[in-house]
Structure formats: structure tokens, C-alpha cells
Amino acid sequence: MRTVVGDEALDGAVDSIVAAGRAVALGLLIGRLGSGGRDFVVGLVQTPVKEDGGDAAVLLSSSGNQSRSRSGAGSMALSIDAEWVAEHARQISRMLLGGLGVVGLYCLAPDSAFKQSTAILCQVSNAVAAVTSISAQERFVLQISTSPRRLACKVCTVEPNGSSSLKPCEWKLAKISTNLQSLTCTYSFDASIPVRSAAQADTFKNKLLSWTASEIKVIQSAEVLINNELQEGENYSGDVQLLLPFNNKEVVEGDNPAIVTGNVNVKGSVDARAYGFPREPASMAIDAIKEDIIASLRNRIDILCEEAEQQSAEQAPLSLLSHCGSVRSLSSLFLS
Amino acid sequence: MAPAVRVLCDLAKQSQENAGVAWLIGVPWMPWTIVSSIRCLRYKDGDPDYAAEEGELRILLPGGLEVIGALLVGSDAAKACAVATKIREVLNLVSSNDIVAATRSSSSDGITFFSQALQPIEQSSFSAKEFWESTALLHCQVELGLSIYTSSGTSSDLKKQLDGKIRDLAESFTSSTTVCIMEGSSRSFLARSQANEELQSVFPDSALFDSSIPHPLAVKLLTQQSKQTDEVIAPVVHYTPSAEGTLLHTATVSLDVLCLVSRNSALHKAMNTITRALTIQLESIGKALSARNTSLQLRPYHFKVPASVHPVTAIFDKNQLERDSVDLRKALHSRLGLPLDRPLFRVANALTIRGPQFISNRIDGKRLLDVHLGLPRCGISGGEVSVIDGSYEYYHYLQDRMDDKGWGCAYRSLQTIMSWFRLQHYTSMKEPSHREIQATLVEIGDKEPSFVGSQEWIGAIELSFVLDKLLGVTSKILSVRSGADLPEKCRELAAHFDTQGTPVMIGGGVLAYTLLGVDYNEFTGESAFLILDPHYTGGEDLKTIRSGGWCGWKKAVSDTGREFFLRNKFYNLLLPQRPQAV
């Protein structure tokens, strides 16, 4: 049976959900899916109210009527707008730092309703899994009951024959957020990409995208220094620097020498941060920070490309563009 | 009193008979040890042309090796010292008190060693194994891309820019952001060009190989991204148009160095050896690109030859035909005192370093290689054994689904011989089939067209025609009237195996065999022949082949008095000669 470790601080978050007095509440679990090891949950994010003002999850009586009261539950079942929940999950997932992901859902509902709603919960769980970036398919469902006050954790797995089921997991609380190892990295780049007149595909956007793709490959295979040394041992918090191949060779196709009409210069830095969870090998945290660098880089380049397209629709030739990134903080993601 | 000098190579064999200089090579952490010797090839007015020698020696020798002395033939120790001191100066080596001078007279093989103070010193023995116990081998490869922009019409600008880029690259090898990662057996090590760490004995003990070189340690050259030096700004993209007619030239430079370092060397010193070696290769290739053509594909290759305990390096143009680089290969043979009749420096001979091992190019096939290796001698007391040199593939009846039982033995022997020429890199041609052999004989007019597809026997003469036509190989034919006369030819056959080392085909009025060696006592006349029998019809099973006698020593006269060769039949022996080619 899988063990899911929740951060001690979650207790307070759950208390707030219960105290709000609603019959049904739904949101996302933020944490880390260990690969065969332990799984961690460090935060809860409530699914926002839909655009039309309705809730994402409601209780329906067997006759199909919505019920807002806790009592007289009878044969109630949950009705959840899976698309809305998944879209929220997708956006949250993009904002999370390296090492963290959307690992499941939490759901506050009467016990009886919960029992009737296995199918819909699995459906939502799979929908969330499909749009969030963790490669494993399973997600957790944390059931919050009010009377008695209790947390039960289940994992929704997809069987080989395609059907899903909720299996129970062990739920434990521990001090996680104070035991995280944090890695930071500022990744800088300064590249000059030639635009050859002969090649049709040498558009501004294509050059940027192909540069980004090759830069990503370099990052993924780069060696890593932590605090200026090769990583050894248990403690690996600190500043990460990537070791890149010396004078990386670019593959140039076409004529040599080639006529160039100009250069696309891309220069700047991205900040990345990732967290290593207790008792995990350093390599997982290193992969996480690389992913964070890559995600940040991709986002920046996407935004720059969009702006460029906008500008080129307005005027030609292209001129100086800049865009400032936004600062993310981990604390703001926790339910308050 | 200077300690004894230890010599790892066969100096007598490698020094020239007439007057000349041979550089004695060693390593700084093992004084008074001569690891190898390189002949001086460039002379000016009777003295070595130091400038020319310097350039060639720098490329040839792996990093870490130095000239520690000189061997002069027909001259005195003082001259040897002076010559060695001068080349060390030209090579920018630290001045040393441990120069070894050696002399040899042109009439004898004996070599005398002297210290720098011209005191004679003794020679003691030393083995390659001992050498490698305190020396580690490092390997580093770097691919560099160069991009140069020029405005049209100014080709001299290209040269200037290229020279500038090469200089900048060479400088950046030693910058503070350049680091090396060396992969040890259980962990990796980080090295910087300046370090304040203590000595570490990082280099793992590696087993020696059949080519008697230890596993090389892979070293990666990397650049550390440092946020202190760059200013941190949010990503910015802008487009700069170029002036009309701007050209972009790209060139790639592939560097590949081997370095010898002491096993107790500090990491930063090892890194400095690597970066010095990379700089040397970079400057040499850069000069060639600048002078000739930026699209030259110059590649360094490493070779392990028997004459030297360590590998040597040569840079070849990948696009150049092998026959055009023959002068460079001849020079390499001369420098190492290697015979000029066997290719040792073709690109196909180069060492391929994959993972933690050295592999020299071997061909895997469905046939067995060298089935005679390891066979015990057959008991000719007082006999001397002479066998072939090099590898071959064992061809015999029924292989490749060709049913040639009863008639194909000479064809099979020919295929075995031709495989020898391919495995020794004289040719890359695959062995011809029976049909192709027959077609060749028809083509040169020796046989009628109806010969193709027939099951007719061929003999030593026909084999010599085919070898000549397909490989350009000439052969000697030895004939005897009777099988009883064959043992008399043993002295000649032994000489053939000792000098040519090629497999011999025995044919004539009877079956054909391949002969791989002789065991001969010239006083008693007793002899045995190492026969590889093409009449074997079984599978590629070494045990069966040996126990069944399909490859084995056959005494000319067995212990029961039986004669192996028939006395009433004539025999022709085909002795292929190595082409004079490198």
C-alpha cells in the first residue's frame, strides 16, 4: 500500500475548509509523486468558482436535484465539472516550481455521497493527470469527512483493461516544508543565430524555436555543480551551475559559406528554483531544477515570439523587444 | 653517481645504421627512464632542424611525454648532450639535470649511456607493466565550431579572423570558467586550471589490454556558467540586419588528445597537461585551415605500434585519399623505426576509444580467426618454430553454402590467404567466391570461358595469377619433384615466415593445404609443418577442428615412420610476398 506523506501544515488548511461550512468542497493537491518511493503532499489549492458562478462540484440527489444541506443526504452523488477542474489544474501546474506538481484532488463531501461517486472522481482524476506534467498516470484523491473529522487518502489507478479504481493508501503527516532542500539556478544565455537568405524556413520564430530546442537538449545533458562542486552526499541545497560543453558546436546545413541577411540575438537569464524532498536522491532534485530552467526558458521564448508576431503585424522590420518575467513565490500557492 | 638508466624500447633496432640522431623520450615523474625513441627526420646542414622537428614532435607525442635525451650514431656523448639540450630549449621544456646521452657506433649494436656530466651509466631493466603502474592515460575529445562573418570581396579578412578565433579559443582553454570532469572508476572528479587542493591519487588502476595499454580515463572539457560575471537581465531578443553581401563561414575543428600523467598527479596539473595538448593540436589544425582551406576535415588519430609502449598521434585529412597521405605514413614509419612493408598507420589501424576500452579494428565474421593460436608444439626436439605473422580467417569446404567438396581446396586456401591481406590492411576487398576466382582467371586469359562454373582444380600458379590480378601481390613459387624433398625446403620456408610472415599454399599433383608455419631442426633435419586443412566439412567449432587435426602440426615423418608428404608426387608452394606499401 502506498504511503502518502502530508505536510504538518496541511492540518490547518483542512481545518479552514471544514470551518467554511459547505457541504462540498473540491480542490487540487500539490506535491510530489515519488517514483516507487514516497509520495508527498505539501499544499491544497481550491478549485475556483466557475465563470457562470456555479461551483465546480455539487451534490445531486437521486432525483437529480441539487442539495445544499448537509443533512438528509440519502442517496446523494457528486457531480463535478471535470473540464473546469482540469483546466485549473493545467494552469496551476504551469506555475509550480521544479519538483512540485499537481498530484491529485481533495474532496470534502458526505461519506455516503463519496461512496456513490467513485466513477466521477476517477474521471476527474484522469482528466487532471492528462493535463499536468508528471509522467505517471495515477493521482491521489484525499477524502475529507466532517463527522467524524477524518482524512482518507486513495489513489486512482488505471487498470490495464482501461477501467479506473480507487485504492486505499496510508496517510501520514510529517514536517516536510521545513525539510525541503532548495536549489536555485540562474541560467544565462547569449546567442547570435544567423539568418540565411537562401533558406525559406529561416523565419524569426523558427530560428528562435529551433535555438530553444537545441538549448534544451544541452541543458538536459549538462553536468551540474552545486555550490561550485560536484554533488556528493546528502545535503545538496544551494546554488546550481550548469556545466556546458566547451564551445558547443552548432550544426549548420546548407552552403558554406552562406549569405546571411542578419542575426537573431537572444540574450538574458532565467531564474529557476526546485525542491528536493526528504530522503530522495540528489539526482531527482537536479532533474527537477533542469525541468524548471527548461520550462522558464520555453515560457519566455513563447511570450517573445507572440510579441514578435504582434509587432510584425504592425510594422516591419522587427525592432527591439523586451519582456519582463513575473516572479513566482511558493507561499502564495498554498490555501490561505 | 647517476642512477642506472632504464630502457623500455629496443633502441638498437630503432636507431639507424648510419649517422643520425634519435630522440629519447621519457616522462618528468620518472627520471632516467627511456620510454621510447623517435628518430630525427629533419636535418639542416648536418644538424637536426630544430624548428621543423619541434612542430612534428609536438603533434606526434601524447601530452606529458618529453624529450629527455638523444642517441647519436657515430658521434660522442658531448654532442648528444648538446643536441638534446637544444631541442628541449626549442620545445620550451624546463631545463633539466637529468639529460641522458647515448651513443652507438655504426658497426655494432651496443649502446652506451652517459649522464649530462658525461659519466657513463649502466642500464637496468624495466617493464611496460611497471611503467603503467605509476602512469595513467587520459583521453579528451573536443569539437569546436567556428563561425566567421566576412563582407564579400575580402578574403584576407577571413584568414585574420580565423587566426584570431583560434587564438581566443586557445586562451579560453585556461580561463577560470573552464573545468574538466574526469571519470574515475567509482566517482567523477572536477578539475580547474588553478587549484588549491592537495594531491589526490585519483587515477584508478586499470587492467592492461592485449594492446598493452590501460583503460584511458575519459576527460570532458566543460564551461562553467557563472552568474557573477554576466549581468542578469530578463530575456531580450532583437534582430540585427547585416550589410549587403555578408558571408558566414563555418569550420569545425575536432580535437582528440591522449595524455600521460603520473598517478599521483594533482588534478589541476593533469588538467594543464590536457589543455596544453589541446592547444598544440588546435594551433596546428588552425594553421592548416588558415593556410589552405577552411573546409578541410583534419582529424587526429591515435595508433599503438609494437615499437613504442605508448600510443602516438597523427593528424590526417579525412577527405584525402589514402594514397595521397603515403608520405606522412612513411615518415611515421621512419620515426618509429618500423618496417616499410606493412601498413601500420592507415586510418583503419587507428585506435577506437569507446567507453572504457581501447579496441583496435577487428573484423567479426562467421569464420574463425587464427585457429592455430595456442596449439602446443609437436615435439621436434631442438627445433626452431617460425609461423605466420598476423591474422587470417579459416576458409574450408562447404562454407557459405558452397558445395565444393572434392575440388575446392585450393580455392579455400586462396580465400584464407586473401583474408590475411585484408586483415593486415593491405586491402579492403572481400574474399572472392569460387566463381569470382574462376572469372578472374578467364579475364586474364589463363582459362577458357567454360572454366567459370566448373569444378576444376587450380594450383599454386593459378593462385599467384589471381593474387596478382586482384591484390597486386606477387608470389614466389617453390617446386619440389617429390614430397620427400619438402623437408629440405624448410630453411627457406622458415626464412619466409620470419621475414614475410604470410600464409603459404601447398599444392601440386595432390590436395591443397595452407601452411602456417614450420618447426625445423637444421642439424638433424627433423621437421614439422603447421597445416591448416581446407578439406574440413564441419562447423566452426574450434575444439573439433583442433582435435580432428584439421589445424595442427604434422611431422614430415611421423613417429611410426609414415611420411606426411607423398614421395611420388610433385608439390608447388605459393609464397605470397608483402607488397612494399605503407
From TrEMBL, chain A:
Family the entry assigns: Belongs to the ODR-4 family.
Subcellular localization(s) per the UniProt record: Membrane
Name of the protein described by the UniProt record: Protein odr-4 homolog
Record InterPro entries: ODR-4-like
Pfam families xref list: ODR4-like
Record organism: Selaginella moellendorffii (Spikemoss)
Keywords: Membrane, Transmembrane, Transmembrane helix
GO cellular component term of the entry, any: membrane
Keyword Membrane applies: yes
GO BP annotations, alphabetical order: intracellular protein localization
Main localization category: membrane
